[in-house]
Specification:
Length: about 140
């Protein structure tokens, strides 16, 4: 090979090596879904079990970083109580608590799993208290 052909081949290899690759961003992960199961109404002094089913892309999440339940009486979120969840397996987590005061209560589960966070919330009544149709602004 002559010198000119070798130089052209080297230049071609050099240019091919410097061509930028298409760097596509990695696909976004499927969201972590948490479905909160809360009774609508319970009796005063009755133990209540709240559960949450956590999934991602339809599969149970059995290794979250954190699952905690925040519970407060209507109008008193500043006095909320944080409770650690108990794993029941297959992506189901629970907490149990007895409510001795008639009132509307809110429960919000804080789920952190696989780099994602979700916080569904629901209300329920203890005794004769009436649960509002939609959560009030103060409770959000």
């Amino acid at each position: 090979m002559n010198r000119k052909a070798v130089c052209m081949m080297m230049l071609g290899l050099l240019l091919a090596a410097c061509t930028p690759e298409k760097n596509e961003p990695p696909p976004l992960p499927e969201p972590v879904e948490a479905v909160l199961h809360v009774p609508e109404k319970v009796d005063t002094g009755e133990e209540v079990t709240v559960s949450t089913t956590i999934t991602q892309d339809g599969d149970p999440v059995d290794n979250p970083d954190e699952v905690k339940y925040e519970i407060w009486k209507d109008g008193h979120q500043e006095n909320s109580e944080m409770l650690d969840a108990v794993s029941k397996g297959n992506g189901v987590y629970t907490v149990s608590k007895t409510f001795n005061e008639e009132a509307v209560y809110y429960v919000q589960v804080h789920v952190t799993a696989r780099g994602l966070h979700t916080m569904p919330k629901s209300a329920f009544s203890v005794g004769n208290a009436v649960t509002p149709a939609e959560p009030d602004k103060e409770a959000q």
